[in-house]
């Protein structure tokens, strides 16, 4: 930590700050300039809050120096993490892995058709929500356990891995037999109790960035899961809230290369939530892969105009096919590949 | 719902939109202008997503018209809601109710002293966190059940009501015997499962605005609680995230009068989280009451510089005293009052 | 400046950073910790860009320490600045000074009536725009020089000072004979050429915060004007752009006490632009004064529903009267006053 | 315009709104629902402000329906605009046009070397600032006219077109002989007087999005230039301000496909300002082209670590070369091309 004192700070104020730093466990190096005194705290005490110093009398500004995350930092695994799944698929390697499917599981017919279309496009994961508490209490709330079973069944039929969102601790046990990857939604990115439990699970987790979360906060949330011993973690950029209203969110494409620099964890992108309009999803999927994403998470529905939820941002099946063809051409330009579909309708 | 077609929309596109609106349960009134066709959907179907229409071909823009919340709307109780507590205190009436206390319960000694100081200032509620999962997994995480018991004990000693944060469904039962009001934190504002359960509880709830939540989203979250039958609900503005970094958040004081207009629920303000710096808390507390807040939620610590958490935004006891004196003078200017302290140190 | 090196930084990288710091004119103090090296640059070179260091190889983070503004800083005039006007009115003293009037001068009749109503309410300044380039090229663009003359005429009739917006350098000369204070609008807060010229003028300037400007950027813009020798400068908070859309902007009330702490310049608030809806203006005017504003800038129109521009946020004359009465009661609570009107209709 | 009345609106309130709509020039169609009355205003009066209706008594919400821009709308030129330059280069066609160069012209030697490196990379435009008012009055302010002459000279030597920023009306005449394209910076996007004058010029203009400007506001500003008769207009996404601080701005890549949908004007991207860090520029340049950008504007400096301004975001010459090679491979995937360099060092 660095504390820069005000020009007018008294020696008493300076001593008081030094004392508190020492008390917290810092070794303090003092630099006395002609105008300003600077205190460098060396060492990394377990407990300290840089904001505490910002309001101390005589302090101009205080800066935490060490990253507040450790296990998530790039230097912990400079070579990068590859998250491996049951059927040989892995995220973080050369393949750009696509996950697609409807927002919600609505019926066996709907999710089976979805799975077939997703598999035929060359995607590797089927996504679909079973628990769907929505912003309005009057909207469709999901099929629950029945939805999970359907996801597993149609995933197995089509050879797709299954990813679905977990929303509270009690759902973890329930979901374990049915999913290949837990998805933590944007609204739960700072549900630390849930994150801690997921750290104890031995199944991969995909953690979405919160709508108002800084990149550093994403990494702190990742730290919770890693600290429990679960290293099979994938991060996901899915748009942040800004003043622009034409798109549902503003997709922060730069978060992809920034995260790739700061952490060893794989990074995928969700252009469906990123923009919230299916007409903009293909361009943003292209941009994500061009910027270095390790994978994509996208909504597709056999009949988006009849979807129970998120229809506006769900691709038509033929749009997904066309997009996958384009991405298959794009990936090699950035040193990656997308395999041809192994499944045919 | 209103759908404005593009100038170049074809009759086929218009018919397709009308068909979908009718299918959803709208009666459609068509206005054909020289340049543009406008479709007004009358009626309020249970299920519809305005975004679906925004991406239909031929559509220029679509607007939901009816509020997506009903029980939370002002028109549901034009006279306003007053939330009444055990000892005669009520929020939403003429009194401006102050809630104060430390971020976390740290020890019996600390919370007892806090309660005494809070009571002596004239505040009516003791706040304090028992469950404190923090953004870093390496920070202090709270005293749990032991903390709840201490809150109750010292609350009873000093005649204060107790408010504490609930973070997951499993904590509700645990907390019920000890708190007078459940607090839902900003990060859980859209934890809809938790909100739904709190709707079934017969104890007041204080719901904080999420860091990136619009005012409409606050009201939708309130609707979840009201829909369960719990009408003893208080809303709380506590700052939103913007580009400004000098303050921890940007406190949206205008949300106070806006909420007072849109809903019948009482509205309190949390200047501590709103600005995150104790030197700015008094000015923001003043501003909140001047703008019509029904109460204040503030952090105070007997020794903020030694606080386990949020010390930077916690008032010194003597600051709280002085602030309460100022607020007691201010309240009558806006037709409210703050009672003199009934407790003395 | 402080440069914190990465844990893995090589000695060569460290030396390269030190070299560059010395080249820029810093004296460098090196702190070598067990994990991390920290370089403190003492001295304040005229030219340096902290971002340059943030992308140097081996650098973890770099922090500018010294404020980039000097003349605007509180320590330059700890006692505060009072800006004095022709007729004895001053901003920054004990009086809360109110400036009111229509968005635009529309006709002699309209501006005369406005001035009479403004004066009768007890406000001290008449505001009104003569040059009104609007966001749409098809909207009303202002009366120009004719508008300025009318402002002066009716200001003199009613004993009000006149404030009006200057938008480009060429207008300064034109406006000088007619206004008592130049207003720089939010869109021009970083029009540095204009600011520099206003620094050479010997007439007070009111500088509005830009819609996306940080508080530090406001102070840097102030520095431009002060650097030219014009110390009669007043700052104005008028709302920033956030994700919230119910209000036109989000008024950052906390900017008022923050600016009062960081600078010696007086700070006024513009609730009309801050919220953009007349029904919320009174509450925000109250909040501004309660938070320590030295004055208010508000829109009022004799007939807001017929206003050429900004009618939605313009108060009715009787609303202004009532609001002034309320503010007159509020001001003493924060140690200020608002004089009774000296003019009667 | 659509006005949705409140459920409780009285007939008198409804009549008053209808009256005002008719007065403004609308034909009003009334839809009386069981719960709510909706008024559709048909026709497009020159003067009206939708906000005026939002605060009328009895009104629930009001929506402008027609786009406030006309000439900038896609329907005005559905086939798209191609802006053609002197030497056969055109923006908006199949070629992705790259513009590169230093932030500021610093000396003849620096700008000549820059131009040679830019030309050798295959870029078509040399960018460089001659007028550089900076956020601090104490920073380097540019070489002025001398800088313009140097840009022209080295542009001619290397066969590059020249683009430079214009900051006020008086500079237009001065710059006309030296530049091939005027650049309007983010801070001037709503300097409507300047935009209007540029509408009368017969030379292409590149208009950057403001740091807090919505996409609609970009198009309204474009409208100012088009309304003057200058159709040689290129738009530029360059990042918006959000809460994220790791990058200087958050580059809104989705603005590229959105603008391509809403307007006929070409759209280029400036990843240098978009992220503000050279290590992220290549990924964002890739993303921009993948998302459909018609060109790129980037900062490159022969020696970024010695640059007078914006060094942190300026590419090294060899980085630009490598990036251009990558982009040349990427462009065909999205149906575009980048020509090989015609100039060799």
Your description of this structure?
The structure is a homotetramer of 345-residue chains. Chain A has 345 residues and is of the alpha/beta class. Chain A has 2 domains: 2-63, 2-Layer Sandwich (Alpha-Beta Plaits), CATH 3.30.70.1140; 74-334, Aldolase class I (TIM Barrel, Alpha-Beta Barrel). Helix content of chain A is 33%, strand content 17%. The first copy, chain A, is built from 11 helices and 14 strands. Chain A has helices at 11-24, 50-54, 108-121, 145-158, 169-175, 192-200, 215-227, 255-262, 271-275, 281-290, 317-330, and strands at residues 2-5, 27-32, 37-42, 59-63, 83-84, 90-91, 97-101, 125-127, 161-165, 181-184, 205-208, 233-237, 267-269, 295-299. In chain A, helix 3 (108-121) runs parallel beside helix 4 (145-158), helix 6 packs across helix 7 and helix 10 runs parallel beside helix 11. The longest helix of chain A has 14 residues, at 11-24. The model of chain A has no long low-confidence stretch (mean pLDDT 93). At the C-D interface, helix 2, helix 6 and helix 7 of C face helix 2, helix 6 and helix 7 of D.
């Amino acid at each position: 930590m660095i504390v820069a004192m005000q020009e007018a700070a008294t020696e008493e104020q300076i001593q008081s700050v030094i004392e508190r730093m020492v008390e917290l466990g810092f070794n303090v190096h003092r630099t006395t300039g002609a105008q300003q005194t600077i205190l460098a705290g060396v060492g990394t005490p377990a407990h300290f809050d840089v904001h505490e110093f910002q309001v101390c009398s005589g302090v101009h500004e205080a800066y935490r120096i060490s990253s507040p995350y450790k296990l998530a930092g790039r230097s912990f695994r400079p070579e990068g993490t590859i998250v491996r799944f049951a059927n040989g698929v892995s995220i973080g390697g050369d393949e750009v892995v696509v996950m697609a499917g409807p927002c919600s599981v609505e019926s066996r017919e709907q999710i089976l058709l979805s799975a077939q279309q997703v598999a035929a496009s060359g995607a590797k994961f089927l996504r679909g929500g079973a628990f769907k508490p929505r912003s309005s209490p009057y909207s469709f709330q999901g099929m629950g356990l029945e939805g999970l079973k359907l996801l597993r069944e149609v995933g197995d039929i089509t050879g797709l891995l299954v990813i679905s969102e977990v929303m509270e601790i009690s759902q973890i046990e329930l979901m374990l037999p049915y999913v290949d990857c837990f998805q933590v939604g944007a609204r739960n990115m700072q549900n630390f109790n849930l994150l801690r439990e997921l750290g104890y699970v031995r199944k991969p987790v995909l953690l979405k960035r919160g709508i108002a979360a800084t990149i550093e906060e994403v990494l702190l949330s990742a730290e919770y899961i890693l600290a429990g011993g679960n290293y099979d973690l994938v991060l996901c950029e899915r748009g942040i809230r800004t003043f622009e209203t034409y798109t549902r969110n503003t997709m922060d494409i730069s978060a992809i290369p920034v995260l790739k620099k700061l952490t060893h964890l794989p990074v995928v992108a969700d252009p469906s939530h990123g923009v919230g309009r299916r007409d903009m999803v293909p361009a943003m999927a292209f941009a994500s892969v061009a910027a270095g994403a390790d994978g994509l998470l996208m909504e597709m529905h056999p009949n988006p105009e009849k979807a129970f939820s998120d229809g506006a941002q769900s691709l038509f099946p033929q749009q997904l096919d066309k997009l996958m063809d384009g991405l298959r051409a794009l990936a090699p330009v950035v040193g990656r590949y997308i395999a041809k579909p192994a499944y045919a309708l």
